[in-house]
Q: What sequence folds into this?
């Protein structure tokens, strides 16, 4: 992820970023040739009698930055609107037995788009990169229904590169 000196020195409140600022590089998940990243997380957002957890994915652009504004157009020089991905567990405020870990998986399905893993103690999701997502707020259940994610057995998994030589990245765990 490239950030200009002027952008790097900005001070932005968590509210403007949509949550606690973080940077988790994902690779190019939308296939536009520019790196994308998780730029903020919101853990334990009250929702009626429970809580919800989110990660904001921002898409890279030709200037080397990440766009925080909504921009749905076909211009490759600008980036698409960020999306908020609902997570099964908190990222920052979860204990070791109740935490989501987000990581780049590489291109697991061979479509030339980076994929990502959301892993936790009870469930792991492989989210496939896509040229576009249906809305600015997506749940893992919706992505599974659209064929853009799969639920894998529980346990912590990570991307391990092309382990078996088939020219696709693989995932593994211990």
A:
């Amino acid at each position: 992820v490239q950030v200009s000196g002027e952008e790097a020195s900005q001070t932005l409140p968590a509210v403007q970023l949509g949550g606690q600022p973080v940077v988790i590089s994902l690779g190019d998940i939308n296939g536009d040739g520019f790196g994308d990243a998780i730029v903020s997380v919101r853990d334990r957002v009250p929702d009626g009698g429970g809580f919800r957890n989110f990660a904001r994915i921002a898409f890279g652009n030709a200037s080397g930055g990440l766009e925080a504004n909504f921009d749905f157009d076909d211009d490759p020089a600008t980036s698409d609107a960020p999306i908020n991905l609902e997570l099964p567990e908190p990222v920052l405020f979860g204990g070791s037995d109740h935490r989501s870990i987000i990581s780049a998986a590489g291109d697991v399905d061979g479509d030339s788009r980076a994929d990502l893993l959301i892993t936790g103690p009870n469930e792991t999701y492989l989210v496939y990169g896509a040229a576009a997502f249906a809305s600015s707020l997506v749940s893992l259940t919706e992505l599974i229904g659209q064929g853009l994610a799969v639920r894998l057995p529980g346990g912590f998994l990570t991307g391990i590169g092309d382990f078996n030589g088939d020219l696709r990245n693989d995932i593994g765990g211990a």
About this structure: Confidence is low (pLDDT under 50) at residues 1-17, 69-74. The CA atoms of residues 16 and 68 lie 9 Å apart. The chain has three helices and eleven strands. The longest helix spans residues 140-145.
